[in-house]
């Protein structure tokens, strides 16, 4: 239809000699397709759409935006790759964890060095490092992605439920063993007695379809200083100390379930489910790889579509009742260094409009555009640029201050940034499968860990 319209305009111009200068500009207008994960909050999506409007007005390039649920992005992208109909720009919260390193290795991603090199000084180093991947076709490392945002592990606690159980925040131990014992052996029986309800103290994600499960388990591994790969991506799992650390981490993680301290359904939880359990107050605390739990209540407090009573409840929950905290000290008394998951977007080598796609990325990453997008997520994502990290937004309340402090304390990358084959392991969620071997199939922890190590070696060796 569009080609027929253009043809008709051209014929009319030729016939009457009018608008001769306008016709070529109209005919040559470019359109790029952009696929993007749908945000958690409307303000996040609104900020992206506003940036697209500004980009179109400045460049004359039309952007066709399609947004999809996170669980749909990889299947749709794989189908597009197979069909040769890829979008010009693509971003998903799941790309980096489950696919991007593999696509880079296979030579399917466009080198974005010309985009990133001129602006790299604006970015925090760990976010640049996460965007540099290895291409086995080109036999080089380069920017096969652009950093957009990052996340890390936090603990969310209902302070009002803690108080109802007869405790206050200062009662929570900071040693590893005492911390988990406190929730399971003290808080859970106390809150059940106080309410007469079957409330669980902990929400421990263990579902195979849950990224929360493997991200949380990594924190337990980090508590025991488990290092699965070296800086070059070479496996270290044959080291007896690694096996010993994995066994201890797996035992601690699954003991919460075995002691009846997390809901039985947590073995099948998907990513939203620990959030839902927390919001419904069927658990007192959970660990989550963003502060999306607290941010949900902030959004409620600002949502004019809700009643005043609902907005007030959101404000009270966010400002008074919910605590954003860190994990306790590691078993040896050291402070856990949290993993940072840097989310990256991409351009495929098969994209039809790569030059215009790079223009879009460059525009999006400008400070005036990327900051509203990140802050539109209400604290769920932490910035990748130095300037945005010092925005007043991160000092505005206790939850954002906690996120800021945690990132400023230093983070470590995930193993998939050093060995792309860990994206396969994450996609399989071998971590949650090992958990379920222990809690559902009653396999001894050491046997489940040995199976886990065997699978890691089979895939990533």
TrEMBL record:
Signal sequence range: 1-27
GO cellular component, as recorded: periplasmic space
SUPFAM superfamilies: Periplasmic binding protein-like II
Source organism, top-level taxon: Bacteria
Keyword annotations of the record: Cell membrane, Lipoprotein, Membrane, Palmitate, Periplasm, Signal
Subcellular location: Periplasm
Pfam families, per database record: SBP_bac_8 (PF13416)
UniProt family annotation: Belongs to the bacterial solute-binding protein 1 family.
PANTHER family linked to this entry: ARABINOSE-BINDING PROTEIN-RELATED, POLYGALACTURONAN_RHAMNOGALACTURONAN-BINDING PROTEIN YTCQ
Protein name: ABC transporter substrate-binding protein
Lineage of the species this protein comes from: Bacteria, Pseudomonadati, Pseudomonadota, Alphaproteobacteria, Hyphomicrobiales
